[in-house]
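pasting for the record
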Amino acid sequence: PPPMECIFGLVGDGFTLLVADASARRSVFLYKQDEDKIFPIDEHKAMAVTGEPGDTTLFAELIQKNLALCTLRVGVPRSPHATAHFTRAIMAECVPSCRLAPF
């Protein structure tokens, strides 16, 4: 079988490296070879996603735009801990109800 999607991150002294393949596949079919799976959250944060191409893009943009709105309202960007908590809360809200998308 062909290799499936892969993302990973490395944290070093003063840097973080996010790596993601650029393919969009389902089963043995390859849809795209230039899918962007790393989304910038703000100047200092990024998120790598994997899964169904439409769902992952929708979810990443949902997180990205809502955190940008929070930054505009408060005037200060969220910490990495708060960003992770917000992302987990959105996933916990979406999974049982499937209101926004089937994440």
